[in-house]
Fold each of these.
Amino acid sequence: MPYVNIKITNEGVTSEQKKQLIEGATNLLRDVLGKNPQTTVVVIDEVETDNWGIGGEQVTDRRKRGQ
Amino acid sequence: MPYVNIKITNEGVTSEQKKQLIEGATNLLRDVLGKNPQTTVVVIDEVETDNWGIGGEQVTDRRKRGQ
Amino acid sequence: MPYVNIKITNEGVTSEQKKQLIEGATNLLRDVLGKNPQTTVVVIDEVETDNWGIGGEQVTDRRKRGQ
Amino acid sequence: MPYVNIKITNEGVTSEQKKQLIEGATNLLRDVLGKNPQTTVVVIDEVETDNWGIGGEQVTDRRKRGQ
Amino acid sequence: MPYVNIKITNEGVTSEQKKQLIEGATNLLRDVLGKNPQTTVVVIDEVETDNWGIGGEQVTDRRKRGQ
Amino acid sequence: MPYVNIKITNEGVTSEQKKQLIEGATNLLRDVLGKNPQTTVVVIDEVETDNWGIGGEQVTDRRKRGQ
């Protein structure tokens, strides 16, 4: 029954990688808390780098500086 | 003043259906808790089937099996 | 498979009212989009009135003025 | 370490405006609570006007009436 | 920089289990997407069983039936 | 109409500080995007330090080391 939301920047994540995130998060809840995988929900949000800020600046600008 | 967030998979939901979700959620809060519809906010997020997991797998894969 | 999050102020909502919100939201998704109630998740967050703002002020202060 | 999520309607917000939202929210947490800007995260979600409801109706319809 | 939110029912999760969820989610993002663990944020929300619904009913009621 | 969610650790934030966060976030949306303060909603979530992770560890542990 757990609900897991993963927010990442939209920078070319593949469908295969999303599959691994979904499997991994579901297994984590099963292994640590014994949660039933059948009712665990995982939602991945891909956020544009212009819309994500850290340290007071857009990730777009950090990427330009190679960070 | 309530805030309702509805997350669904992005599979051809029409504008008319969204209208019904917004009306329905707003009326629900009014009927059950007496909340003023004028300040009830409803936000609908449509999530790609690759980005939604249940039972440890992507909805995309479930749809391929007819689920 | 939908996920519905309802945020309301923490002002004496009863367990029976929460039950009605859960039923109502689940039925809404079934009626409008044909979603399977068995996998619809509803999470209710009750937020202290000091922690909820609208119109630039705390709900606590609005309540004191009878709003 | 704070996490700030700003949800707005998708109506032509520029990259420069997003930059100002990120800076402003980060500075707000620093000024009020002394939070370290380096680990403050801000995520902006732009939501289609069909997917945002207030007063029981879609923002799309409100905009048509000039609201 | 990823942000992970884990919502679970409030049913006696220990501090040690939370530690494992935080480590596990952080490692998952590093392993699958190469994300820097130093800026990965994980927030765990524990939700009362009265406030969590699945299948149109409160988890509290499901627990009473042994589910 | 914007919705702002501020998540911070639960470490003695006063009602007055919450008031300043609500005012500040509401003014930010007005100043940058011309949003009407009357319909701007701000919700503050205070999260236990055991439930917040960064760098793969609980904030509780970081605080013990003076971070």
Note: The CA atoms of residues 30 and 42 of chain A lie 13 Å apart.
Amino acid sequence: MNPSTPAEPSADGRGDVLIHDPSLRDGHHAVRHQLGAEQLRAYAEAADAAGVPVVEVGHGNGLGASSLQAGQARLSDDEMLAVVREALTRSRMGVFMLPGWGTTANLRKAIAHGVDVVRIGTHCTESDLAERHLGFLLEAGVEAQGVLLMSHMAPPERLAKECAQLVSYGASAVGIFDSAGHYLPDDVTERITAIRAAVDVPVAFHGHNNLGMAVANSVAAVAAGATTLDACARGFGAGAGNTQLEVLVPVLERMGYRTGIDLYGLLDAADIAERHLMPAPPTIDSVAVVSGLAGVFSGFKTRVLDISRREGVDPRDVFFELGRRQAVAGQEDLIVDVALGLRQGRLD
Amino acid sequence: MNPSTPAEPSADGRGDVLIHDPSLRDGHHAVRHQLGAEQLRAYAEAADAAGVPVVEVGHGNGLGASSLQAGQARLSDDEMLAVVREALTRSRMGVFMLPGWGTTANLRKAIAHGVDVVRIGTHCTESDLAERHLGFLLEAGVEAQGVLLMSHMAPPERLAKECAQLVSYGASAVGIFDSAGHYLPDDVTERITAIRAAVDVPVAFHGHNNLGMAVANSVAAVAAGATTLDACARGFGAGAGNTQLEVLVPVLERMGYRTGIDLYGLLDAADIAERHLMPAPPTIDSVAVVSGLAGVFSGFKTRVLDISRREGVDPRDVFFELGRRQAVAGQEDLIVDVALGLRQGRLD
């Protein structure tokens, strides 16, 4: 799609790490999906100049997700894709889609805009939901990856099985997302090792920083055989943010991995992101610590705080109980149940 | 000194980690040493309530350092020590001193205020500068620790030798500071292992977060045998900040270590710190990344930026060259040399 696509790192080159940058997609969560065209352009151009291999763009929840329920983006998918496509000369353009939010029609549109890499995401135990879309992309000849969200909720063997299934559907790469920022490095090592043993395609890791471990977890992932790492400028993303891109890259290079990214260009891009994209870089607040420990999707934050206040219970107790109940996105009703239960002392 | 000193973790209890909290000392660097009595009191009371074992207080550079050169603190050492002493019921009170900035007279005053733990810090290769003060404290019967700053500048064997020397002077514990935030976990493992092999006293690690590794480095330190970890609420400290206390503690507990600290109490203390002590929690900006990579003291930041602007050179080049020249605090004149050299192309 992109005539000047940079060379992929050699699949067997042990030292090569492919950086996938979702700043303009995951970062959208931190600004209620309100990035404008000038912001997208400024960052995409800077990332492109630095040689970031993949620049992902879109609503925080991916293609087709702009809605009252998930938050209405300032720009349409069409507008976002057009701006970023135009800004990129070397970097490949990526998009993300959650089946249910997005459909084949959205994929068609993205293809028309010249998307290079499409990621289809599902909950970590529901890879079958990606089958249709991965099949469609395979047929369309577009690079299609399958990624598993909230991956801490499944044991290594299960993740390996789900990843193998994604490959059978046509995924040319698979990945796990630490959506709740729950992992410690050994957790990542175990899971990536299991997945690597089960599939022959590149494996990606996407970290969040709730427990201050995003960079260390990413390093653990490549040490265990992952070859793609997600990271965002200044960690731009919901809650405690993602792995910080301009920190991760020089750390990897110092350890002997090669990213092909220019450090000063990357730092410039991160400065642009801080100045123009976000009100402030993400930090790890107390709610982020608790939701990371509890393994709860950080998107629950506002609702947990609101309901806890209303019911007069400690939001931290609510998070830990949601974690025990293995709550997943879409189960927001559980928050009220848990808060009421705590108020009535049923859970103590 | 403190009648209600909490029990120390058993020296041989493999799972116990003693948390040493310098928020009210290292954090001072982030606010030009301007914390007032109400701020010190609010945080000290909250840390005490959470069961934080040691609360360190003072000017960022320690006892006696308030000056035009290092920055004048809002409160005198006497005022700071009196407020914190009064606020603590269970936690022990710590102070820090750099020989040269502080003298025996300052130590006498701290003892009169009932200080429980005194740390004498020197550059990593100059432990002999701590001899007199450690000897004085030993005689006075006050717990005295020796800590090595900018410890990445010396190889493991040298640090081990310096630590053994600190013990010979009377230090009841020793430690290494990653003042520049330069370490990756393997660096820490190597150094703590070497020190543990050389001394029979508890070993401490004090991290900074320039490369996003403060928590991971601290975990590596305890895995290698350190039993004391420094950490600050929200990472409150200069530049990229210190290891984030309320993140580190639950991570340690999850890994099976015991800190004796109450999680909710600790999160409350961190919330108080964020609300009342700092303009904003520290984040990792581009200068912090570069100074961490270069291994340069982050206190150089303002001067490097000013001089680079004046001379029309890239401050990042200045940092890397300062790192190559192994610049240490006190060598601020080097910044001008380096900037001029870069401008004249002598260093390219």
Note: The first strand of chain A starts at residue 18 and ends at 22.
